[in-house]
Amino acid sequence: MPEMRHDPVQKRWVVIASERGFRPMDYETARNSKSEVKVSSTPEFDPFAEGNESSTPPEVYAVRTVGIKPDSPGWKVRVVPNKYPALRIEGNLNREGVGLYDRMNGIGAHEVVIEAPDRDADLAFLPPNHAFEVVKAYRERLIDLMKDKRFRYILVYRNHGEFAGSTIVHPHSQITALPVTPLIIAKELESAKQHYYAKERCLFCDIIAQEVRENRRIVAQNERFLAFTPFASRFPYEICLLPKSHQHDYRKTTDDDLKQFVNMLQDILQRLYAGLQNPPYNMVLHTSPNTESFTPRPTHWSTIQNDWHWHLEIIPRLNNVAGFEWGSGIFINPMRPEQAAELLRGIVLE
Amino acid sequence: MPEMRHDPVQKRWVVIASERGFRPMDYETARNSKSEVKVSSTPEFDPFAEGNESSTPPEVYAVRTVGIKPDSPGWKVRVVPNKYPALRIEGNLNREGVGLYDRMNGIGAHEVVIEAPDRDADLAFLPPNHAFEVVKAYRERLIDLMKDKRFRYILVYRNHGEFAGSTIVHPHSQITALPVTPLIIAKELESAKQHYYAKERCLFCDIIAQEVRENRRIVAQNERFLAFTPFASRFPYEICLLPKSHQHDYRKTTDDDLKQFVNMLQDILQRLYAGLQNPPYNMVLHTSPNTESFTPRPTHWSTIQNDWHWHLEIIPRLNNVAGFEWGSGIFINPMRPEQAAELLRGIVLE
Q1: Which of A167, B208, B252, B282 could form a disulfide with A323 if both were Cys (CB 3.0 to 4.6 A apart)?
Q2: Would the ipTM clear 0.95, i.e. be above it?
Q3: Structure pTM?
Q4: Which residues 42-101 of A are in CB contact (within 8 Å) with B?
Q5: What is the CATH number of the domain that holds B270?
């Protein structure tokens, strides 16, 4: 059983998942044994390809031609449980203290969103109505997974390219349901709440207003979505993509919202592709935590629909992170966000 | 002038150092343009080698034979300013708000500790009296740099191997003086303070007591120092090395302390070298912040000599960090810390 452990100094949870086939002294295995999807993939065999549906666990969601039975060919998007999950869906949390430390069982869900039947597809260039089905699958899985009261937070993310941690070429996103609110999300929720308590305005709405007014870091926008390089970007070409109107929960997006969202997302991914020659990147959705997972709900989550604002982080992985960053949490960004925005804005998409 | 910027959502500072020769669309440059030392190093020319002293800025500290003049051959350890610093030593901070955001000038120091004249040397295997001079150089530079009241925190760190972010083969450590307390250190200081206020005991002393009592994660120890794999390790073989007796400030270590410290440090580095075939690693010292840098000193730093305990983090970089970790701050460790400790303990050093 995987385990979650809490560090009393840095106040963070880690997942100890020692059963995922990590051979301790095997350097090459170690390098790829983290949070990534693990399946038997070889150049000859693609477990995510159309026709190989039996090589994954049974699908939990799919977009397929009407009348075709599950786990068979004839789909556009398919969501399956990870065959080698970092967290297990069955069991109780059994929260307990161990002296100064804390632990619980590693209960959660770990799913893979297979974005297309073709391993050479790329989210950036899928036909818009197909790409829409991918981001809609995120919404549908969030709605379903948040029904499980053991899950405090559901993280949707995407690793593109080997340097960004992807070991499977076939295009896919991942969804991890966690029994805790992760440190970074908790920090963001706290900032948003403090801002709201002081000002009765959403922090992100205020940021949007300032970005639009300054107009120096905007990369692209459409009617409902805005993409900009954050003022304090950690990385060159880091992007924040979010709805212009206040919306706290990705589950509440309409199909029309998602069409505009995926339009902006593909715009950004295409700019990165063209400007940086298909760079590795990580993409992470920061949506509302599962506020219904607490009984009773803590007081500090009662204003979340007013103070939180969902957003997507896109981080091109152009440079490595070294001791300085690990040891301090301070990042050195060799590029001004204003310059990054200008360069990305200047790219002419075909 | 480099700039420090504050993010109002994640409440962290970044350094925007856009003058370090980063060519925006150049992927390979980007990959290596972060916090690492940047000098013109080629296989033929080693700027840190004995005889090439004129290729670095003038030394600020050196261990050399008596009577030999600075910046000439005849040294064991040499500390020089980084030729391409991420932060600049001269100027005023000019703290200011920019709407919701905050910024200040990137004032700081960035030094390189050249650990030996020979580029093929390795800190793990230097003669003990030579390795002692390296960790003593850390102390002497901390003492000197903390006299500058603009610096809130001085970070000592070491990147070993290309995958850990090192671009110069010649063995060296780095020292960065910052005008802010970094996020991770601030978090640790806060935990230690809360623990102390509640219990009037040092959090780290309590951890040491529990580790010694449980005796499952200890890797090595001598009379004054203990090395163990933290209960909630983020990475396989992550190590915490710290003094067994309460000591909050690395500047206060005696030569005898440092001899025992470097003995333990070399022990650990040799175990990693033998067990993991010379792995890349990051090493980061978490010592006391520069409490004298505030006038007047904030109340919450008045108990720091009781509540803080300096320690060294060693993180072998066996696996990459992907979207899950970036987006959540939750790490998935594929190896139980108890197993890592057992394997490292079992290595017989020559």
Answers
A1: B282
A2: no
A3: 0.91
A4: 86, 98-101
A5: 3.30.428.10
